[in-house]
Amino acid sequence: xxxxxxxxxxxxxxxxxxxxxxxxxxxxxxxxxxxxxxxxxxxxxxxxxxxxxxxxxxxxxxxxxxxxxxxxxxxxxxxxxxxxxxxxxxxxxxxxxxxxxxxxxxxxxxxxxxxxxxxxxxxxxxxxxxxxxxxxxxxxxxxx
Length: 144
Hints:
By secondary structure, the chain is mainly α. It is 62% helix and 0% strand.
């Protein structure tokens, strides 16, 4: 005679600790709007970022790079949160929509990053080395 064994319940994520209410979360919607606004702001700042990197423009470049780092971290949170929601419920259309919105954010961020890289290519090696050696830049030096 065989006996059936009961499987433990499947684990669940506590996504409410990030944004209460899941894909319908007002906090998540507000956060996505803030991310969208920060991308628009970064696009405008790239346009006004000086082409030359020197002691007079270094602070502009530092602020821009730190902002871009913050924006990508926020985009990754949008993607991770919506991805978890989609994984937990494949029928959650709002989660899928949020995931697609996160993909669009990421594409726009990459466009800005490409513009920044274009400016950075014109910087001399010695100025670039000074720049990436700054204390504020140290945590992300590897990526630069």
